């Protein structure tokens, strides 16, 4: 019989589903930023709106993680993970700040060719940092629950 009690698969399933959803959103935006040399003003406004939407979604995601749940549970199960979990949560403000800076850069109706290229680089940097963040989180959860959840592929 599994050591995991009834509520755990719900928490873990939620985390996994959330991370998949975030990954899909980021992939869609990566493709949008690959639109060269630059999008129409209308398309630019759409992409900016999608970045704002991602930012709001991310804030909710981080709040859920911070307000207890899987990271706390992982620490309770395996106290040696506390330092890693704390370090992960501390990355949240910087990740949101990266998106805020990108949104600020995208303010205005029109986009210059250079401004668009810079926004694309900003997003690439954010996506890479965010991806590493989620990987670290998945590692903590997987170790905490001592289960191969197939999160690390
Ligand atoms: Fe997180
Ligand atoms: Fe996360």
Mean pLDDT: 85
Helix content: over 70%
Structural class: mainly alpha
- Count, helices: 6
How many beta-strand runs?
0
Bound molecules: fe (ii) ion
Biggest sheet layout: none
Question: How far apart are the first and last residues' alpha carbons, in Å?
Answer: 25 Å
The quaternary structure here is: single chain
When the domains are counted, the total is 1
Shape: elongated
What fraction of residues sit in β-strands? Answer: under 5%
* Rg result: 18 Å
Give the SSE string: HHHHHH
Q: Unreliable runs, pLDDT <50, ≥5 residues? A: 1-6
How is the secondary structure organized here?
Layout (H helix, E strand, L loop, with lengths): L6 H27 L7 H26 L3 H8 L4 H9 L1 H14 L7 H32 L9
One fe (ii) ion (FE2) binds next to helix 2 and helix 6.
Short précis:
By secondary structure, the chain is an all-alpha fold. The chain has helices at 7-33, 41-66, 70-77, 82-90, 92-105, 113-144.
């Amino acid at each position: 019989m599994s050591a995991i009690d009834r509520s755990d698969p719900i928490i873990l399933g939620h985390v996994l589903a959330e991370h998949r959803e975030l990954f899909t959103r980021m992939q869609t935006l990566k493709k949008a930023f690959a639109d060269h040399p630059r999008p129409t003003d209308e398309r630019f406004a759409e992409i900016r709106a999608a970045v704002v939407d991602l930012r709001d979604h991310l804030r909710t995601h981080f709040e859920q993680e911070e307000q207890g749940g899987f990271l706390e549970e992982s620490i309770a199960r395996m106290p040696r993970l506390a330092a890693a979990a704390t370090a992960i949560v501390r990355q949240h403000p910087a990740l949101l700040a990266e998106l805020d800076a990108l949104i600020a850069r995208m303010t205005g109706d029109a986009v210059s060719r250079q401004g668009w290229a810079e926004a694309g680089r900003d997003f690439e940097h954010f996506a890479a940092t965010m991806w590493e963040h989620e990987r670290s989180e998945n590692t903590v959860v997987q170790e905490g629950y001592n289960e191969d959840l197939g999160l690390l592929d």
